[in-house]
Amino acid sequence: MRHFLGVLAVVGPLMGCSVDFQGWAGMKDQPKAMAYRESDVFADERAMRVPPPGTVPREYKDRSRRVRTGGDTVETSAGIPLTLTRELLEQGHKSFDIYCATCHGVRGDGVSPVARKMGVRAPPSLLVLPPYADGHYFNVIGRGFGLMPGYAEKLTPEQRWAVVAYVRALQASQRVRLEDVPPEARERLLQEKAP
Ligand code: HEC
């Protein structure tokens, strides 16, 4: 059988005959509606249908225009309005690793493959920024900043605050004083530091 097909494949075109193996020609030329083309299926002869008035795209459901477009901002001087819990920080950690680490690095220090290749202005280290208030971070995440895109469509306001909290944790992790550590952890740190 394989020989037979092989011979047909070579001899067929030579003889100018078109062999329709398993209906291939039919699949190439199937009746379907093409974007912006006419169609005789509908009375208005348009292939593309007009959505009923008031239709909301599925991805816009439950989201205000302000949130979608990043207009959802706070006073730049605002602080984190949510209770800081371990759960919130862990949520922020997860979102940060998904949406921010690609550019700013998993430690937020601006070391990432993308940063190395971004020629115009590389994503900065988030550990050495000026003393911005939490609200500034919230607004940057939602609206974007210069070359950085906004993430209002991906992260709800709560998720953005969680990311801000996690960025604060990353920053704090760079210069924690012994007094800031819970007493039970101090002993362990001192032992680890001892030569
Ligand atoms: C596509 C790469 C990219 C991603 C992803 C990204 N950033 Fe940025 N970010 C940048 C770049 C580039 C800049 C500098 C923009 C400029 O100066 O034009 C920047 C700047 C910043 C700044 C500094 C703003 C200031 O006032 O100086 C903060 C804070 C920041 N990003 C936080 C985040 C957080 C948090 C996330 C995740 C939600 C994130 N970024 C995701 C590329 C990125």
UniProtKB/TrEMBL annotation:
MF (Gene Ontology): electron transfer activity; heme binding; metal ion binding
Residue span(s) of domain Cytochrome c: 87-171
This protein's UniProt keywords: Heme, Iron, Metal-binding
Pfam families: Cytochrome_CBB3
SUPFAM superfamilies given in the database record: Cytochrome c
Alphabetized InterPro entries for the sequence: Cyt_c-like_dom (IPR009056), Cyt_c-like_dom_sf (IPR036909)
Recorded coiled-coil stretches: none
PROSITE patterns: CYTC (PS51007)
Gene3D superfamilies: Cytochrome c-like domain
Keyword flag Amino-acid biosynthesis: no
Designated name of the protein: Cytochrome c domain-containing protein
Organism: Melittangium boletus DSM 14713
